[in-house]
TrEMBL record:
Lineage per the UniProt record: Bacteria, Pseudomonadati, Acidobacteriota, Thermoanaerobaculia, Thermoanaerobaculales
Organism for this UniProt entry: Thermoanaerobaculum aquaticum
Keyword Cell cycle attached: no
Origin superkingdom: Bacteria
Coiled-coil residue windows: none
Annotated InterPro entries: Cyt-d_ubiquinol_oxidase_su_1, Cyt_c-like_dom, Cyt_c-like_dom_sf
Primary localization class, coarse: membrane
Pfam families reported in the protein's UniProt record: Cyt_bd_oxida_I (PF01654), Cytochrom_C (PF00034)
Family indicated by similarity: Belongs to the cytochrome ubiquinol oxidase subunit 1 family.
Protein name: C-type cytochrome
Record's signal peptide: none
Keywords: Cell membrane, Electron transport, Heme, Iron, Membrane, Metal-binding, Transmembrane, Transmembrane helix, Transport
Localization in the cell: Cell membrane
Cytochrome c domain boundaries: 351-444
GO biological process, one term: aerobic electron transport chain
Length: 455
């Protein structure tokens, strides 16, 4: 809100999700591909296995294109997207972890350099030199994951950082190691699933079966690591987050369904991989493609669950999804939300509906569009002014509960005790609340005159 925002018609969250999920899929392959290719070529040299060496060689071009080209472009795309859609959160992440980002960029440069050298030196340098290049690449790529995981997990479980604001407390947060184990498993099985297509190009049937079995074994290892990491990650979450998607009555049933979905997808993926392990000669392109889709489904389901579990925050217990800090709720209730987003009223008429539209853009538009994704018009259809007033009043009262110690457990806000645990509270003056109500009434289909009803 401190900066002018660009909110697309499909919604900010959807656009960020589309860019991010594309990037994380290829970036996790880039990490896992380095590890699996390093293992494959090491075994090939040790066993004098030309088919296994050819597998690594066939995959290396894809690794280069994914890591140094598409991965780099989509990574920049994430920065551009979040900078436009959520500049205040982007600023917070940069200022809190500037040295973390700088270190990750150093590893990325090493990753790009070694990937290019690895591909360019096939059959031109000694085997040991070539192995050194791929192991250096695998190390650099994995270290990028090690650093990025600390920042990603911080946004969901900031831990003691909330009190100390220390780099180490935020980076080594409660879900850092569990999430790193989970993502390592995902990297490994994604690489195995990708490389299975290259294995099917082997003309020698006996060698093809051997490669399929080898990659199936790699995928089984990755699946087991990922499953163990997921269970550990889930157990490390604060109870207030777990309550959103676990238990007999989860606060967000859609997230509970996402959890069931991702676990079933992982089980189905394991079944397909075990089939490849036990019957490698029967492996065909369609079966391999289905296995890859199931791997994507598990990973996508986890990312959806992780992002959804952060509601109503962008940084848990610190910054709401709309950029409002918990620490500034009291001030904004006195001075008004538009004192923080003055740009929204520039050139606008001075009337309640226009002011209400500005308040909506400041507080609600990060998640809700008017008619598209999570469209507010549909959500409040048929509601009258009295109902809207009751909802907004409740949401404003919940802001005071965030700032008090009434709903805090072990430093975390016990959002499961709130009426709207997955939405930021309404923050602003009474005049702004009335203005927002006036604007919302124009979207409900009820008469604008009803705005004054019950006041």
């Amino acid at each position: 809100m401190d900066y002018p925002l660009w909110i697309p018609g499909i919604g900010a969250g959807v656009l960020i999700g589309l860019v991010a999920i594309t990037h994380v899929l290829v970036s996790h392959f880039a990490v896992g591909g380095g590890i699996v290719m390093a293992v494959a070529e090491t075994l090939a040299v040790k066993r004098q296995d030309q088919a296994l060496r050819n597998l690594a060689k066939r995959t290396s071009l894809i690794l280069i294109l994914v890591s140094t080209v598409f991965g780099a472009i989509s990574g920049v795309g994430i920065w551009v997207t979040i900078g436009l859609l959520h500049p205040v959160a982007t600023s917070a992440l940069i200022h809190s972890y500037v040295w973390g980002w700088a270190t990750e960029w150093v590893f990325f440069i090493l990753e790009v350099a070694t990937a290019l050298a690895y591909y360019a030196t096939w059959d031109k340098v000694r085997p040991r030199t070539h192995l050194l290049l791929i192991w250096l690449y695998a190390f650099a790529a994995f270290m990028s994951l090690v650093i990025i995981q600390g920042i990603i997990s911080f946004m969901l479980t900031p831990g003691n950082w909330l009190q100390t604001k220390a780099f180490a407390d935020g980076f080594f947060n409660p879900t850092y190691v569990p999430g790193l184990v989970l993502r390592t498993g995902i990297c490994v099985f994604l690489a195995g699933a990708y490389m299975a297509f290259a294995a099917l190009r082997e003309q020698d049937l006996a060698a093809r079966a051997r490669l399929v079995r080898f990659l199936a074994g790699i995928q089984v290892v990755g699946i087991l690591i990922a499953y163990g990491g997921y269970r550990w990650w889930e157990a490390a979450l604060p109870e207030s987050i777990r309550a959103l998607f676990l238990g007999a009555s989860p606060k967000l049933p859609a997230l509970a369904s996402t959890r069931h979905f991702l676990l079933w997808m992982l089980l189905a993926y394991l079944v397909f991989v075990l089939f490849a392990l036990l019957a490698p000669k029967a492996q065909r392109w369609p079966i391999t493609a289905v296995a890859l889709v199931l791997a994507f489904a598990f990973f996508g389901g986890y990312e959806r669950l992780r992002e959804g579990a952060r509601k109503a925050f962008i940084i848990r217990d610190y910054m709401f999804a709309n950029g409002v800090l918990i620490s500034e709720i009291g001030k904004l209730n006195q001075e008004g939300i538009l004192s923080k987003a003055k740009w929204l009223m520039v050139g606008q008429p001075d009337n309640p509906v226009a002011k209400g539209r500005a308040v909506f853009r400041a507080q609600c538009a990060m998640c809700h569009t008017e008619n598209g994704y999570l469209g507010i018009r549909k959500l409040i259809s048929g509601a009258d002014a009295e109902t809207l007033d009751m909802i907004l009043t409740t949401m404003r009262d919940e802001g005071e509960k965030y700032t008090s110690n009434q709903y805090r457990q072990n430093g975390h806000v016990a959002t499961e005790k709130l009426d709207y645990p997955f939405m930021p509270p309404f923050v602003g003056t009474e005049e702004e609340k009335e203005a927002l109500k006036a604007y919302l009434v124009t979207l409900t289909g009820t008469k604008v005159a009803e705005v004054s009803h019950g006041n």
